[in-house]
């Protein structure tokens, strides 16, 4: 095998693929990046950890087609640090020579024959705007469970019904749901998949810069249990979580008694300050009424703090306590200048949604449902 | 029940003891567990009775004075106690009865002074300095307590009346059974210095040995030994401390209701167990006891500790800190079983399991992050209902199905986890 490629093209491709390399590979070959050069002038780089596969194809002057497996992190470090010159990669016996200007690297070949077969390249089921997708994934994945109690809750549930896509995640303390539209190849597309939240947000971030992301689900993804993403020359597949996701439709409150609209940034700042005195696992208390929200934390025995933020409040006054981190996650995710918070009772979930102006309409495409903290009786 | 008995020093001062300034009372029930158990067995009063686990692994919890005369002491293996006193009746402990009597006794104390420091179920320190105008001198308050408890609970207690905690404790020991000893403030030094060194609080077998090596047999010997010698023999803190005690100096005050730091329960099996399902059931039983105690004490804890003792007595503990404080049997059981499963034991033979709830706080102050999908009435309410049923019909009135005793001769029952 022998090919020549621009330094920037190689470095970008290698570092993108290397993201998917396992930190502790279950088998040694998985710490490698597979390079396949074909006679048509392309080189494909891939990495795999049995869960996630990443593949990128770049243009190169291929003098001699072939396949080679080299240590991934080392190749990523090297290509990032090479001078800005064309890079030559060539097999020499059991070594791989990387030459760029006057610098030379000789890497050990890993046994490419032992490398597992990657999941087949998925056929797209449809496409979605990259930035909108990345934003939606970030909004929802904050609510996914980070622990290990219920593996199913570490995922984001993606439901596709025609041109509507619904992303949802919950750790049972809060739930985030985002509805958006996409362009399916078939108008009657209908799928429900559960994608590990961490992988999904990594993937969305790494592909979202491209204008459009192709999504492959169901049989199009090359077999059940997989989901595929493609943007430009980058393709990735992820193994889905298996299991029954809990029913969540009954979680959304059906009525609203009190509704408050606050400037998101002001409330975030105030909650952050007041929460400084809230010890681990203790809540911040919010009292909505008299055109303001009064925020307090701490108890008589310890430090206390309070602050008030302007707010429109319709309906009866309400006093409610939240875990400050969960509240800040929600306020950070709405992504609009104003946040509308709807309540029924102090013991029942509150719903956060975004809105562009103080007296505008609420944008219900994103909802963050947050269960309050109560005191045991 | 104290393992060592001392004779009271002979009083030299004439007249009745002067209780002025003796505001500290130490009240100790006489053979509490035995007396309380005998309430239900009046025909055994006056005979040797041992309370404790009756199996071959049991230990003595308490014994009547008739049995103690044979050398039976608490914490002694039951097998040995039976050999010492073959004529004794052995009765199983009845913890609900003890808890109920103890609560009533503590209520009696609180009706006299808020400064009550319970040491265990059956003994407490009281500082009665604030009750003197209302109820008379310390000795008459002590007599009032003794009469009230004897009348209401039908068990006897002994009271030590002294100017300080350790003297009150020594005095109540000397007053046993069913008596009262007053240590007048003016006679403290003579009283304490006539005692053997082992009578001092904090002097165990090791310290006593060290003191005997120095030729110190009475507290008076300690009092007249230079502090530097004591410090050399016993260390800095213990040396100074003993010297102070020997001169009757004890500045510790009665600390009302010290907060419990942990609540736990453990069980030594009749025979060693290696069946994981059976062990999980025993863990459930301990979790059930621990949590019902936590709920009745209105405490919630955040750390669950599992204790496992192997057949060779090696003991290990594993802890897990939960996301938030809990008093729920289900949550504690799940955490304890996860810890047990995490040990990865391959049919290891176990002698004991224990479940303990730590980092306790008042459950009224324990914030609970609610769950979005929790039903209006959940496990918490079910467990509270079980507590109420237990309060009315006795412990075990409602319990997990897997803990029900199977009928003799019945075929293997279906085994299910609590879920």
Number of strands of chain B: 13
**What letter string, H or E per element, gives the SSE order of chain B?**
EHEEHHEHEEHHEHEHHHHHEHEEHEEH
Q: Can you count the helices of chain A?
A: 6
Largest interface: A-B, 26 and 17 residues
Estimate the strand proportion of chain B.
Answer: 15-25%
What percent of the residues of chain A sit in helical stretches (DSSP H or I)? 10-25%
The chain-level structural class of chain A is alpha+beta
N→C terminal distance of chain A: 73 Å
Largest sheet of chain A: 12 strands, antiparallel
Kindly report the CATH topology of the largest domain in chain B. Answer: Alpha-Beta Plaits
The pLDDT mean of chain B sits at 84
**Tally of distinct domains of chain B:** 3
Helical residue percent of chain B? 25-40%
User: How are the strands of the biggest sheet of chain B laid out side by side?
Assistant: 5-6-1-7-8
Question: What is the overall silhouette of chain A?
Answer: elongated
Strand order of the largest sheet of chain A: 15-11-12-13-26-25-24-19-22-21-20-23
User: How many helices of chain B in DSSP terms?
Assistant: 15
The CATH architecture of the largest domain in chain B can be given as: 2-Layer Sandwich
Number of extended strands of chain A? 27
């Amino acid at each position: 095998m022998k090919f020549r490629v621009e330094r920037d093209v190689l470095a970008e491709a290698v570092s993108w693929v290397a993201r998917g390399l396992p930190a502790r590979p279950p088998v040694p070959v998985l710490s490698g990046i597979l390079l396949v050069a074909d006679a048509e002038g392309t080189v494909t780089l891939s990495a795999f950890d049995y869960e996630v596969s990443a593949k990128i194809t770049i243009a190169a002057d291929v003098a001699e087609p072939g396949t080679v497996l080299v240590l991934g992190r080392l190749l990523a470090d090297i290509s990032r640090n090479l001078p800005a010159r064309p890079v030559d990669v060539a097999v020499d016996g059991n070594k791989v020579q990387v030459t760029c200007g006057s610098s030379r690297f000789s890497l050990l070949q890993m046994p490419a024959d032992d490398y597992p077969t990657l999941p087949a390249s998925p056929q797209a089921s449809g496409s979605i705007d990259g930035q909108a997708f990345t934003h939606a994934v970030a909004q929802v994945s904050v609510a996914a469970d980070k622990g290990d109690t219920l593996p199913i809750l570490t995922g984001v549930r993606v439901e596709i019904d025609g041109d509507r896509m619904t992303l949802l995640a919950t750790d049972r303390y809060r739930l985030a749901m985002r509805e958006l539209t996409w362009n399916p190849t078939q108008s009657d597309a209908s799928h429900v998949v559960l994608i590990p939240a961490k992988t999904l947000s990594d993937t969305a971030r790494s592909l979202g810069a491209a204008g459009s992301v192709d999504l492959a689900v169901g049989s199009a993804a090359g077999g059940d249990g997989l989901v595929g993403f493609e943007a430009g020359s980058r393709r990735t597949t992820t193994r889905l979580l298996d299991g029954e996701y809990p029913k969540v439709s009954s979680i959304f409150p059906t009525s609203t008694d009190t509704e408050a609209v606050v400037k998101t940034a002001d409330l975030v700042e105030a909650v952050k300050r007041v929460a400084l005195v809230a010890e681990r696992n203790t809540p911040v208390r919010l009292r909505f009424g008299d055109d303001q929200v009064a925020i307090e934390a701490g108890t008589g025995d310890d430090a206390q703090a309070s602050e008030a933020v302007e707010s429109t409040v319709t309906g009866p006054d309400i006093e409610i306590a939240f875990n400050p981190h969960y509240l800040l996650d929600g306020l950070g995710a709405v992504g609009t200048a104003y946040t509308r918070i709807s309540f029924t009772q102090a013991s029942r979930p509150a719903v956060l949604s975004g809105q562009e102006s103080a007296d505008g309409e609420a944008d219900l495409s994103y909802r963050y449902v947050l269960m309050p903290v109560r005191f045991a009786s | 029940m104290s393992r060592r008995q001392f004779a009271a020093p002979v009083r030299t001062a004439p007249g009745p003891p002067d209780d002025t300034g003796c505001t500290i009372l130490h009240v100790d029930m006489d053979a509490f567990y035995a007396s309380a158990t005998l309430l239900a067995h009046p025909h055994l009063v006056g005979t040797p009775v041992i309370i404790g686990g009756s199996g071959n692994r049991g230990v003595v919890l308490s014994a009547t004075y008739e049995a103690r005369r044979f050398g039976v002491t608490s914490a002694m293996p039951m097998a040995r106690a039976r050999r010492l006193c073959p004529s004794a009746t052995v009765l199983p402990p009845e913890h609900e009865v003890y808890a109920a009597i103890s609560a009533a006794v503590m209520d009696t104390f609180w009706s006299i002074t808020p400064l009550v420091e319970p040491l265990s179920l059956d003994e407490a320190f009281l500082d009665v300095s604030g009750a003197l105008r209302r109820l008379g001198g310390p000795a008459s308050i002590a007599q009032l307590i003794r009469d009230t408890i004897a009348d209401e609970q039908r068990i006897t207690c002994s009271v030590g009346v002294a100017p300080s905690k350790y003297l009150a404790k020594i005095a109540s020991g000397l007053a046993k059974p069913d008596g009262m000893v007053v240590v007048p403030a003016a006679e403290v030094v003579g009283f304490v210095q006539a005692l053997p060194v082992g009578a001092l609080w904090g002097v165990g077998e090791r310290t006593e040995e060290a003191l005997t090596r120095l030729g110190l047999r009475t507290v008076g010997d300690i009092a007249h030994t230079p502090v530097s010698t004591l410090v050399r023999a016993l260390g800095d803190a213990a040396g100074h401390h003993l010297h102070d005690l020997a001169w009757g100096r004890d500045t510790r005050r009665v600390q009302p209701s010290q907060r419990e730091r942990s609540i736990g329960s453990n069980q030594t099996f009749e025979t060693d167990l290696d069946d994981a399902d059976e062990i999980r059931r025993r863990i459930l039983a301990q979790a059930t006891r621990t949590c019902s105690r936590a709920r009745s004490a209105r405490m919630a804890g955040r750390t669950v500790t599992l204790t496992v003792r192997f057949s060779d007595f090696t003991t290990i503990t594993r802890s897990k800190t939960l996301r938030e404080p809990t008093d729920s049997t289900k949550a504690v059981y799940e955490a304890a079983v996860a810890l047990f499963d995490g040990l990865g034991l391959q049919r290891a033979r176990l002698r004991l399991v224990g479940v303990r709830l730590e980092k306790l706080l008042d459950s009224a102050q324990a914030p609970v992050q609610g769950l979005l999908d929790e039903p209006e009435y959940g496990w918490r309410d079910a467990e509270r209902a079980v507590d109420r049923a237990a309060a009315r019909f006795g412990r075990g009135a409602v319990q997990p199905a897997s803990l029900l005793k199977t009928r003799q001769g019945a075929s293997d029952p279906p085994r299910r986890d609590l879920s």
